[in-house]
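INFO  loader      accepted 1 record
INFO  loader      residues=158
INFO  predictor   begin
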Amino acid sequence: MEYIRQLPIASDDDCFLCRCRDETDDDANLVVWRGKHTIAVLNRFPYTGGHCLVAPYEHVPDLTDLPTETLTEMMEMLRDLQRTLSEALHPNGFNVGINLGRCAGAGLPGHIHAHIVPRWEGDTNFMPVFGKVHVVPEFLETILKNIRQASDTLGLPY
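INFO  predictor   done
INFO  writer      dumping tokens
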């Protein structure tokens, strides 16, 4: 517990989600969409191509810290990402989740965010288990372009 208690908590100064929120180069930051209260970003270190994060603009650690309109927009953005990722990448399914706290798997416990991970039949293999290597079959910039094109095709408001 001594080790766990001393782990640093991300602040606005070192939070990549806050940096994506504040900077204007959406291509460099892999920002997919900006809403009124939330932002969608491609995960820079994905398990599968198209793995996105949806986060509020507010740097808060917990669902209980968010107003209803922000929570609603997060869910709507996840829904729209599922639709757009289906159009752009044709996955067989999705994992959607939120990790609250470092012990629950949150790599950035100070800034709550939801994951939406496209999945394909057979996308798990020996590489991450034995080789500690993650296989990403397409460049992130290409995936970002495909997602934006699919979003335009679907007429989404982002």
